[in-house]
Structure formats: structure tokens, C-alpha cells
Amino acid sequence: MAQRISRAKATIRQSGVGFNVPESSERGDRLGAVLHVLYLIFNEGYANSAGPALQRLDLSSEAIRLARAVHQLVPNDGEVEGLLSLMLLTDARRAARSGPNGELIPLDKQDRSLWDRAAIAEGVALVSTAFARGAIGAYQLQAAIAAVHDEAPRAEDTDWAEIFALYGVLEGVSANPMVTLNRAVALAMVQGPAAGLESLKALERDERIADHHRLHAVRAHLYERLGETKLAIDHYRKAASRTASLPERDYLLLMASRLAQPD
Questions:
Q1: Of all residues in the chain, what percent carry a pLDDT higher than 70?
Q2: What global pTM score does this model have?
Q3: C-alpha angle 163/164/169, rounded to 5°?
Q4: What would the pLDDT profile of 137-156 be if each residue is shown by its tens digit?
Q5: Cβ neighbours of residue 22 under 8 Å, at least 6 residues apart?
């Protein structure tokens, strides 16, 4: 990495291109690139994609720090507010996401008394201000979804109909397979697991996610809810074999093992 940085510095020095403030016409694209990088850094910190640790606090905390810095520099941008809100509302659950041995605890099983209420209040205020500006973007919509989860006192109090509606809007703003996958989960919570499974068929031909561990994990959960135990076990095991995160793998194998146990 040090060598790459040195080469980049040399290239810039030789080019004679200075670090000038971009023209106003360029700022939107450049700001969008910055926000996307911060979003990726935060996601990798909150849900480590590989290795023994479920989370990397160094990455998620740094992403939040940098998002705050951007918000100070661009205080009236709805998507900057939306991204910072999303980070805060998501990070607020961090203490409840893992058990004493680092094991993964899913959202519906978390002890919500461990959630950071100050971070939730700040995140809700930010996304409310962002929505009041009128223009709605992808980060604002994701923050709104996170707020619905965080404001539910219990898992069973979650307003899944609102979440499903927000994912529908998000698909129109920023369509991608993960949004479609999450919308299918919300649909299953509103209309039942069969409806959720039916909506997943649209992802079977998408090479970006067709064999992704998260798609198999969602299928497994929905088949379990339908009482299709063998199919659920099969997909939990497929999901486990396709993730590089050890806590995720262990959780998925535990779910498969629990279903495989005779009554």
C-alpha cells in the first residue's frame, strides 16, 4: 500500500496537476464518490466481510468521523445528512449485535436496551431534516428504514409495511440486487414467506447475487418459516459455505444444525 501511495504521489507530481477546488459543476459527482467510499468503509467495519471478527470498530468509527467532517463542510446537503444518519442509526445497535464470545445475534433477537439511544435520536433528527429539504436520495431512504427499525420498542412492533414501502421507493431511486433482496424480506414480513420467496425469483438470473450467501440465507429463513425444513437446512449450509465471515458462517451452521436435530 505504501508503494502504491508513493507511485500515486510521483504520478501527480510529474503531471503538474494541482489540487484545485473543483468547479461547481464537478462538485456533485465528487461529493457522491466521497460519500460512496465512506458508505463502503462503514459497511465493512459494521459487518466485516472476512475473518474471525464480526465487526471492525476502527473502520466504522473512522467512517462516522469522516462523515461528520463532510457534514460540517456541506451542512445543507440531504444525502450527506442521510449518510451520517444511516451510519448513526446502524451503529447504534453495535453493542447488541454480538454475544460474549463474538457470536452473531440477529436483529430480531437483540437486547434493545443495549442500543445507543443518543445515537438513534441524533440519526432520526438528521434524516428528518434531510427529508424536509424535499429531494430524496438513496442514503436518506436507507436511513429512514433504519429509523423504523430503531424506533420499534420490540421486534414484533416493527412497522414492516412502512419498511416495504420505503424499499419500493429505494428501488426506484437506486436499484440493485441487495435492495431487491431486502425488499423481499420486508414483503415476507407483510404478506408471508411464500410471497417473499416468489419475489426472490427475480434474482436467480442476476450474476451479481445468484449464488451469494445472503440470498441463500434469506431463502433458508423463509423456507424455515414455511416449515420446509430440508430446504431450509440446505440453504443455510449453502450460505455458510459461501461466506468468508467466520461469525456469519458459525451462525448459519448453527441454524442448520438446530433444524437437523430430531424433535
A1: 97
A2: 0.91
A3: 95
A4: 999 999 999 999 999 999 99
A5: 30
